[in-house]
Amino acid sequence: MKFALPSRIAGAVALLFTYCSHLAVAQTQNTDVIYSGTVSSHTSLNCGVLNDCVGIEFPDRFGTKDNLEDYAILHPRTLSVLNSSPVGVTTEMANAVPSGSRAGIVLSRHGDLLTTAGANVLNNLSIITWGAEGSQTYNGGSLLNAELVAQAPTRLEFIAKKPFTSLRVEYAAVTSVATKFRLYYAYSFKSNNTNTQYLGATSITTNNVTSGTIPGGVVQGCVNSGVTNPAGAADNDVNTFATFGSLAQVNCPSFLNVKLTRSVGPTDYRAGFVVGSAGLVDLNVLNGFSVVTYLGDKQQEVATGINALQVNVLPDDKSQISFSTTKPFDRVELRQNSLVSATYNLNVFYGFGIESKAFRDPEPVRSTLPVATTNVKTFRGSVACADISIGSSTSGCSGITNPLSSVDPDTTNFTTITQPLVAGGERVRVRMKLEGNGFAGNRAGVVLGASTGLLNLKLLENTTLRTYAADGVTLRETFSDGSLLNASVLSGNKTALSFLTTRDFGWVELDLPAAAAISLATETQVYYAFAEEQRLGFPTNLIGPSGPLPVQLVSFQAKAAGGGVDIKWQTASEANSSHFVVERSATSAEGFAPIGRVAAAGTTTSRQEYLLRDAEAGEQEAAILYYRLRQVDMDGKEHYSQVVPVKWSTPALALIVYPNPAVGAENIRVQLAGTATEGNSLAVYGARAELISRLAVSGREVVLPSALLRTGIYQLVLLNNAGQRVATQRLVVAGR
């Protein structure tokens, strides 16, 4: 017996813009972020009598991600007869970074931006990586415009062409004084999706493909129409492809139809293709394509254009086009059903049908909060707008109306930003508080709209997104380059603009340019901010169901609560299901061990809800705990759910025991490091887990009488008024 999770909304790994019909969601950290570690080499700092320094100042600070006040300073060298070698610093990554990973550094300028007119000073900056397959160099000027590097931390990103363990930042010698840079840390987002097993199928190895032209085109005579090398979309090589000809040269719509290795569906699957040509950036081009599903020779469903298709950018200049299905299918077809102007060929690598949970996650964190004026901040230029009043449509800044609508429970409400259609005005910022925490590796963003039509994504180049800590004041990250932002076109003419984060956050800020905002109209609508868990990498570890799926898992969630973790799951139906086992690990891929068992409902068509509490989660020495569900049939067959991460933080209430070990006849004092709540109690357990005593907690300290405990090892457990474990501490008593 197998069970499947219904769909979650897909995310995208993007260096280019991504268009979707749904918003990706989630909130816990499920993306491994690899950070820089020890600095292994650097150019020594030398300063002249006029304090004209050359080299790396504070090199050991390159890699300090938790404090942005700590940074290395790169002082470039000017060309001279004696020495014209670059200035640089090398750091070792905490873990190996695989090929295809998204990686980068965080930097800012130190002092003024000194450069000649029209020159990009980042052209002289290089990022060099080393690993098992050799070195690779990335030019800073090709990754980011220097004008976007402010005196706030900014990211310079690339897709790793080779795996690496070391990363060096260096600046070539220049003919005149150049900009100094602050170097904060390096990072990489590790693919969390490629090796995870999902239900699904592709056209790889089927060698079953048809192609041709669709009759009734707008131009008579199908000259230059059709698909070249159609077999490339269904052969054994994932890197070969079929090609739709340049749309500017096609006289009749064309189609490519491939058979999958097995039938999939009916619901909670995505049907589509992996394509090339750097993605479909032009919305008009996307509107000219359809994805069609078939079961045998019977057409099942059709999705056309930006209101139905989702396009996610993948590494290696590939993208996936897909839509969510409601019927079973065993063939997928890509159809060019209208003639639009474009000058590039579209390469089609293979078709697929994969369960939706491979592309999306269950729970977003949004700025959908109870109405409060403290949940949003607005700015024009560098000046904060006047205080916002509940019920007022103004923000204290001209051009910003209904500021509270971007942080209220209604996701259809919006804040409106009105900008003049002239350059030279002040930028506008809206900073929104999230309803929960966003974690490093999540995607942070905002959902936007335009007063007329779609946003003009080509005008995003000067748009900036920032994240802030939970206080709404401390800057966490700045993302300034439109080419690195992920733009997802949603239904209802909305766009989700986002980026992958490397630091925890609690607020998201949108910073719009003065001229024309980011739409062809003068008004930009800001619906809400969000944090979502990101799925990185295209799923390739696919299995197929051998028959119906009698156990359908509706949801599987794990959340920290008190000193433990509550694990909840729901099933829509079950057949011959014996029991469930919840397993926990400190890593996402291995080391899972059972922590509890719950009897299943057997056979039922009614929705069932289950709950298990991991009371010992707080005792695990891991920042993130991973949980999965093992379902066991009556005949003993076992099947697993996806892995769910829980970012663990130290409980607010912790126990400090003194003395420990305790010797002699002295009393033992137990202090609460946090603020006690009414109804808490302290339980004392012996070595055999027997309850020795339970004492009421009425203040910040509890005294254990010396006569209560004999020589031995004890476990002290702080319980809240619901009986849940909040904090624990081991106590050793000797010499009594």
UniProtKB/TrEMBL annotation:
InterPro entries: Ig-like_fold
Signal peptide segment: 1-26
Highest taxon in the source lineage: Bacteria
The entry's keywords: Signal
Record's protein name: Por secretion system C-terminal sorting domain-containing protein
Provenance organism: Hymenobacter mucosus
